[in-house]
Write a structure and sequence with these properties.
40% of the residues lie in helices and 15% in strands. By secondary structure, the protein is α/β, with parallel strands linked by helices. The structure holds adenosine-5'-diphosphate (ADP) and magnesium ion.
């Protein structure tokens, strides 16, 4: 259940005094959090604190437009409403009248606004041009806080023209750290070559399966009955494929999308072979690629690029495709706790999807920037995830659903270490066990729940 938001749960690399000074209209981040907890947003219970909040506050201090993107139902509206006040009014383009006005007269709509929060801006993409014009004329920072449930902006040329004026922040569904009410220290530790802390109580076996099956969507997480959760997730997927996909304006045969989602779920975590997907779907390769791009723009799937290095030879250059939420992947693939008790095979794929989500969420809320990729070479050496920081340091992460780890599980990490030389800070096998231990110089096995350890 959500925990009450205490000041101690707010990520602490955040500069309070600077916020007070420059935003002026918030007494502090704490007030935003408290407002999230107590605002009359239609629910009386408290909310989980979101770890990207400081990034939004900071960006509003020095950037004219801040764009919060992420899947529908991740919590964007709830988060941006906590920033709303008299001088930063809130408008939602999910509201028909507002949307109608914004589409009919984008310039007029924006001209009336000094500052504003505009929710679901992909519903009236022409607003972006009007916003660009007004922020060029009046370049004060923090003028617009926008949200989008579809990354139409990736396709839109307006965003190029907004370059330098907009900062994009991604909000994925809840992370484990958010559900536990504290920021993870995993990245800081592993990039310093230290064993990540263990998270107590350890999440193992059935408890781990439970966490993975739930995924991160708040509405799914809060449903105690698995059946009700799966119903919600399937109806979420249905409306995404039938309705939200049209916001992207590039889909003419939406009937194949449910089948495409099934196929991609069955291949989650594998190298993406678009030609094969196209054959299974019975449409051209080009169309298939366009549809996959659309599902990526709706944050249903994620293409993980291959690791690149001049020092490592014979690397495989295909990306891998993952679903972005392990709860959705489980629902689409009919993976239940009961079924996994008898057959653990699907757990590997679910766990990889889960770890991908956790790593992306962690890097979205971190103060540094990270690049995430996968490593595979032609000798079948592989590492599920490779993280690189902006200084070029490398950390490899391999995911194992089992409680035993053998030499074979470290092979890819050893290869990556050889190829990266001093850039390689640490290699980790995340596994389903309570013990953390060093296997070799800067290569270790640690419990999966170390990902959300704090302190
Ligand atoms: N921080 C949070 N803690 C708990 N539940 C949340 C939180 N943020 C959102 N929710 C719940 O998740 C659902 C979707 O939230 P919403 O803000 O409407 O998402 P979005 O705008 O991304 O579609 C709502 O039912 C909301 O109550
Ligand atoms: Mg919303």
């Amino acid at each position: 259940m959500p925990v009450a938001i205490k000041p101690s749960t707010i990520p602490l690399h955040f500069n309070w005094s600077r916020t007070n000074f420059a935003i002026g209209y918030h007494s502090s981040l704490q007030s935003v959090m408290t407002r999230m907890a107590h605002s009359g947003l239609g629910f009386s219970k408290s909310l989980y604190a979101r770890l990207v909040t400081p990034r939004i506050s900071e960006a509003l201090l020095d950037t004219r437009v801040v764009l919060l993107v992420g899947p529908r139902q991740a919590g964007k509206t709830t988060l941006v409403k906590a920033f709303a006040h008299d001088r930063l009014p809130y408008f939602s383009l999910d509201d028909h009248t507002t949307q109608h006005f914004a589409r009919a007269d984008p310039t007029g709509f924006v001209r009336r606004l000094d500052r504003a929060i505009i929710d679901e801006v992909q519903r009236a993409p022409d607003l972006l041009l009007a916003i660009k014009q007004t922020v060029d004329a009046d370049p004060r920072p923090g003028r617009f806080l926008l949200t989008g449930s579809a990354n139409v902006f990736r396709l839109s040329s307006v965003v190029d023209s907004l370059a330098g004026r907009v900062e994009t922040v991604r909000l994925l569904p809840l992370s484990q750290a958010e559900m536990h009410g504290q920021a993870s220290t995993f990245l800081a530790n592993v990039f310093a070559g230290r064993l990540p802390k263990r998270m107590l109580p350890l999440v193992l076996d059935d408890a781990l399966v439970d966490v993975v099956l739930k995924g991160g969507f708040p509405e799914a997480v809060k449903r105690p009955k698995a059946r009700r959760r799966v119903d919600w997730l399937m109806s979420y997927l249905g409306s995404l494929l039938q309705r939200d996909v049209h916001d992207l304006g590039q889909i003419n045969r939406a009937v194949v999308l449910p089948r495409l989602a099934q196929i991609l779920a069955s291949m989650s975590g594998q190298l993406l072979n678009v030609t094969r997907v196209a054959q299974m779907l019975g449409v051209s390769r080009l169309t298939t690629q366009r549809y996959i791009d659309a599902l990526e723009n709706l944050f249903l799937v994620y293409t993980l690029p291959p690791f690149h290095s001049n020092a490592l030879k014979r690397l495989i250059k295909s990306p891998k495709l993952h679903l972005l939420d392990s709860g959705l992947l489980a629902a689409v693939g009919n993976s239940t706790a009961e079924a996994l008790r008898w057959d653990r095979t699907p757990l590997g794929r679910l766990l990889e999807c889960f770890v991908l989500g956790e790593l992306l969420k962690m890097s979205d809320s971190a103060s540094g920037r990270y690049r995430l990729s996968h490593f595979r070479d032609k000798q079948q050496n592989e590492v599920d995830f490779v993280l690189e920081d902006s200084g070029g340091s490398v950390v490899g992460i391999e995911v194992k659903a089992a409680a035993t780890v053998t030499g074979k599980d470290f092979r890819g990490l050893l290869r990556l270490r050889n190829g990266c030389g001093t850039r390689f800070k640490m290699g980790i096998v995340l596994y389903n066990h309570d013990r953390a231990y060093w296997y070799d110089r800067n290569i270790a096995a640690v419990p999966i729940s170390s990902l959300w350890s704090a302190g």
